[in-house]
């Protein structure tokens, strides 16, 4: 029997969903977080066994419905995760979160970029693009560990706040890198417009501020609009359709005018999560988005393992380990000590001592956002015939795959020991 390409695509989609379901019982029996298991399963059923084709994984992650499962999944994941963020935490640890998400992000992007360029011979702008992609952190995989260790609220709150707000910052830094390298590409048209009028330095800083402020204001407005609209009409179970529809509308509309939509999505989720009346229908909305977010993460991480070919694994595995260790044990600590050190200088702020900064510098696993962004240079290079992005696109997404996998596995193992050594035991 001859299977048509379309039919085989549906087989692959069904296979990915089934494989994803097994990650939970496997992780439970192995007593570890499920994300590395998803990536490994993607590697096994992708490049090793060939059930998930390399071309299909690339298409699904970056091109499905023109934007890819990665971006669509990111919308769902960030919207749900922001439900759980408390404005109290943001107010209390604002300076530290802001320092990590600005100074820390830039230090990470530049530092990782320098090492990437030195090791590969790539131009510094290519290194910066790699650094921008791996700059967002995702300590969500370590939250259960934080609870077991009874980590202080100021530390866990700062790290979780950092990870929530640095996702859009990583996307913005990538846009800046792409805009400098290829100003005529539509991906960074807003950045090009600003820099053409006010110059690179002022344009970059203005771009950063506008890309945060404009969508955040839009997201806050939509968040309160959803709440008051539901109070008037009472959508009951179809509240799920209303919220998801508006969030997708935000994403589409802001993307259409060249503005990153993710600060808006985060803001809408935070408003809905903190100011809704917590009725049974809002609880159903939260539970639905939690499950949808979990499924999106599972698909993305399996695809991450599947986009690598056996040749790429063998070619880049040594480099992947080296750059991963540099990011984890050199770049991240430097970024944390610089940014927290500057934040400690502010008045009326809780000061973090050297042991606390050391612990925070060792906690920064990479997650969904770097995975989603990892294929952007390669796809843009092919679509717009940009030689540098075509040449280095493969090593960028292969390297990001290793950084994500190794950072999660290593930090899952050593963070409990680092917590006890640097912070001591806390009584419940």
UniProtKB/TrEMBL annotation:
<protein>
    <recommendedName>
        <fullName>Cation/H+ exchanger transmembrane domain-containing protein</fullName>
    </recommendedName>
</protein>
<dbReference type="Pfam" id="PF00999">
    <property type="entry name" value="Na_H_Exchanger"/>
</dbReference>
<feature type="transmembrane region" description="Helical">
    <location>
        <begin position="164"/>
        <end position="187"/>
    </location>
</feature>
<feature type="transmembrane region" description="Helical">
    <location>
        <begin position="6"/>
        <end position="26"/>
    </location>
</feature>
<keyword id="KW-0813">Transport</keyword>
<feature type="transmembrane region" description="Helical">
    <location>
        <begin position="124"/>
        <end position="143"/>
    </location>
</feature>
<feature type="transmembrane region" description="Helical">
    <location>
        <begin position="313"/>
        <end position="342"/>
    </location>
</feature>
<feature type="transmembrane region" description="Helical">
    <location>
        <begin position="288"/>
        <end position="307"/>
    </location>
</feature>
<feature type="domain" description="Cation/H+ exchanger transmembrane">
    <location>
        <begin position="19"/>
        <end position="415"/>
    </location>
</feature>
<dbReference type="GO" id="GO:0005886">
    <property type="term" value="C:plasma membrane"/>
</dbReference>
<keyword id="KW-0472">Membrane</keyword>
<feature type="transmembrane region" description="Helical">
    <location>
        <begin position="93"/>
        <end position="118"/>
    </location>
</feature>
<feature type="transmembrane region" description="Helical">
    <location>
        <begin position="207"/>
        <end position="228"/>
    </location>
</feature>
<feature type="transmembrane region" description="Helical">
    <location>
        <begin position="395"/>
        <end position="417"/>
    </location>
</feature>
<dbReference type="GO" id="GO:0015297">
    <property type="term" value="F:antiporter activity"/>
</dbReference>
<keyword id="KW-0812">Transmembrane</keyword>
<dbReference type="InterPro" id="IPR006153">
    <property type="entry name" value="Cation/H_exchanger_TM"/>
</dbReference>
<keyword id="KW-0050">Antiport</keyword>
<keyword id="KW-0406">Ion transport</keyword>
<feature type="transmembrane region" description="Helical">
    <location>
        <begin position="363"/>
        <end position="383"/>
    </location>
</feature>
<feature type="transmembrane region" description="Helical">
    <location>
        <begin position="33"/>
        <end position="52"/>
    </location>
</feature>
<feature type="transmembrane region" description="Helical">
    <location>
        <begin position="58"/>
        <end position="81"/>
    </location>
</feature>
<keyword id="KW-1133">Transmembrane helix</keyword>
<dbReference type="GO" id="GO:1902600">
    <property type="term" value="P:proton transmembrane transport"/>
</dbReference>
<feature type="transmembrane region" description="Helical">
    <location>
        <begin position="235"/>
        <end position="252"/>
    </location>
</feature>
């Amino acid at each position: 029997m001859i299977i048509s390409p379309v039919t085989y695509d549906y087989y692959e989609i069904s296979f990915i969903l089934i494989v994803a379901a097994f990650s939970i019982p496997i992780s439970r029996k192995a007593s570890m977080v499920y994300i590395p298991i998803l990536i490994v399963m993607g590697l096994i059923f992708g490049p090793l066994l060939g059930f998930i084709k390399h071309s299909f994984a690339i298409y699904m992650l970056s091109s499905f419905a023109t934007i890819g499962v990665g971006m669509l999944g990111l919308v769902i994941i960030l919207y749900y995760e922001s439900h759980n963020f408390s404005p109290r935490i943001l107010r209390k640890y604002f300076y530290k979160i802001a320092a990590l998400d600005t100074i820390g992000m830039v230090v990470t992007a530049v530092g990782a970029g320098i090492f990437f360029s030195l090791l590969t011979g790539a131009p510094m702008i290519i290194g910066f693009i790699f650094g921008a992609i791996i700059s967002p952190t995702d300590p969500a995989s370590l939250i259960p560990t934080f609870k077991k260790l009874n980590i202080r609220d100021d530390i866990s709150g700062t790290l979780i706040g950092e990870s929530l707000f640095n996702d859009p910052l990583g996307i913005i830094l990538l846009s800046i890198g792409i805009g400098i390298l290829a100003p005529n590409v539509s991906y960074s048209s807003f950045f090009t417009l600003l820099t053409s009028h006010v110059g690179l330095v002022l344009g970059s800083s203005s771009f950063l501020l506008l890309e945060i402020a404009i969508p955040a204001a839009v997201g806050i407005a939509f968040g309160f609009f959803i709440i008051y609209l539901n109070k008037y009409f009472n959508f009951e179970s179809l509240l799920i359709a209303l919220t998801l529809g508006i969030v997708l509308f935000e994403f589409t509309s802001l993307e259409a005018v060249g503005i990153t939509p993710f600060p808006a999505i985060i803001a809408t989720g935070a408003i809905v999560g903190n100011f809704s009346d917590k009725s049974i229908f809002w609880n159903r909305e939260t539970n639905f988005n939690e499950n949808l977010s979990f499924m999106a993460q599972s698909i993305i991480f399996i695809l991450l393992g599947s986009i690598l070919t056996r040749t790429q694994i063998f070619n880049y595995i040594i480099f992947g380990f080296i750059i991963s260790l540099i990011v984890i044990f050199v770049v991240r600590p430097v970024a944390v000590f610089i940014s927290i050190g500057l934040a400690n200088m502010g008045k009326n702020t809780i000061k973090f001592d050297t042991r606390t900064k050391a612990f925070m510098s060792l906690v920064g696993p990479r997650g969904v956002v770097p995975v989603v962004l990892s294929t952007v240079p390669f796809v843009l290079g092919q679509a717009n015939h940009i030689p540098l992005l075509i040449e280095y696109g493969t090593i960028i997404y292969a390297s990001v795959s290793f950084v994500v996998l190794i950072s999660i596995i290593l930090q899952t193992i050593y963070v409990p020991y680092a917590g006890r050594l640097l912070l001591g035991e806390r009584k419940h």
